Amino acid sequence: MPRIAILGASSQIAKDLIISAANMDEVDLHLFARCPDDVKKWLNLAGLSGCYPVNDFSVLSQHEFDAVINFIGAGNPTQIMTMGNSIFDITLQFDEIALDYLRAHPACRYLFLSSGAAYGSRFEGPATRNTLATFKINDLPPQEWYGVAKLQAEFRHRSYTDLSIFDIRIFNYFSRTQNISARFLITDILRAIRDKIVLKTSPDYIVRDFLHPSDFYRLVCALLLAPAANAAVDCYSCAPIDKPTLLKTMHEEFGLRYETTELATSVDATGNKPNYYSLNARAADFGYEPTMTSLEGILKETTAILQQRTFWTS
Q: From residue 17, how far is each of 50, 92, 197, 250, 255 by CA, in Å?
């Protein structure tokens, strides 16, 4: 059973992976976080108390791991804006912790959670294998700092050609553990359903590809089992979904009331991206096959959220 170090175990997507791993019992996890006590409290609430060791980062070098997965970063637009230019230092700091470990343990594999924002903020069309990263190098706006921080990390990783490093570019991810207060379209929809209000949204046509936690776990396992490589892969589901279809379906399935208006506001922490998804299926080369479309994943997780008592009382 491979031994995996989870860096940033307090993040939402890390917690989802931990739960998936606990259900499958395929890997041996060791959790690392800046506040280990918070992770231990969450493990207890999740019914996983005592299942995994939890430490701060100071003891990472004292253990032998087959892989390190780095989840540290910003999980929602508001957090990205709050972090400001510190995103550069934080990304570098914890990336170096992982790279230092790999230098001492070159057989270890490193999975780094990157972002589709590493391509830049211009998504007039979806990303492909031939898409170039584009940034306004002479006038870099704050909305692109997050993407540049991820791109810098990816550049560092490609330079270590003798090490097995996979950068996993997350575009859109949705699960029942989603922070409902985050300013994403999907969370705006959920709050409107909960509060029985009319969602006011812009008429902009956008397309998104939402990854389900089970497919994310499937991707991670594929990269852990694949032959050693130094590469970047984009996340994708079986099919993306456009905004009109999402709104219509949420109305039909869950009673969402909505109207489009030019006055609607949103948080574009990494820039406005009309087609924020990828057709780059390089992950398939390493054995990844998604099982859910964006819509299937959204319906499954939304149903679970609406069944949670805390959702209605928060």
A: 17, 23, 33, 26, 30
